[in-house]
Amino acid sequence: MIEMMLMVSLILFSITIAIAIIRIVLGPSMPDRVLALDMIGVNLIATIAVVSIILKTKAFLEVILILGILSFIGTIAFSKAIERGVIVERKRDR
C-alpha cells in the first residue's frame, strides 16, 4: 500500500514539474518564470526524497541538500537580477 502511494506521489510530482516547465516557457512575466523555477527545485527535492524512500537508501540525502542550496541561491540571484538588473554589484572608487 505504501509503495503504491509513493508511486502515485512520484507521478503527481512529475505532473507538477511538467506544468512548471510550461509556465517557464509561456510565462507572461519574468517573476512567474522565477517562481516556476523555484517550484521545480522544490518538487525535485521531494521527488528525490521519495525515490530515496523507495530504494531504502540514504545515499540521496546529500543530493537533496546540495539541490536545496543551489535552488535557493538561484532564486535569490534571479530575484536580484529582476529587481536591480545586475546580479553582482561592483563598487567603483574613482
Describe the secondary-structure layout.
Elements: H1 2-26, H2 30-55, H3 61-84
Helix pairs in contact: 1-2, 2-3
Overview of this protein structure:
This protein is mainly α and about 90 residues long. Helix content is about 80%, strand content about 0%. The radius of gyration is 17 Å and the shape is elongated. The model has no long low-confidence stretch (mean pLDDT about 90).
Share of helical residues = over 70%
Q: Low-confidence stretches at least 5 residues in length (pLDDT < 50)?
A: none
Q: How many whole angstroms does the radius of gyration measure?
A: 17 Å
Structural class category: mainly alpha
What's the shape? elongated
Q: Assembly type of the shown chains?
A: single chain
Order of helices and strands: HHH
**Straight-line distance between termini:** 69 Å
What is the average per-residue confidence, as pLDDT, rounded to a whole number?
A: 90
Sheet with the most strands, sense and barrel status: none
How many E-type strands? 0
Enumerate how many helices there are, as a single number.
Answer: 3
β-strand percent reads under 5%
Question: What brief labels describe this structure?
Answer:
94 residues; 3 helices; single chain; mainly alpha; elongated
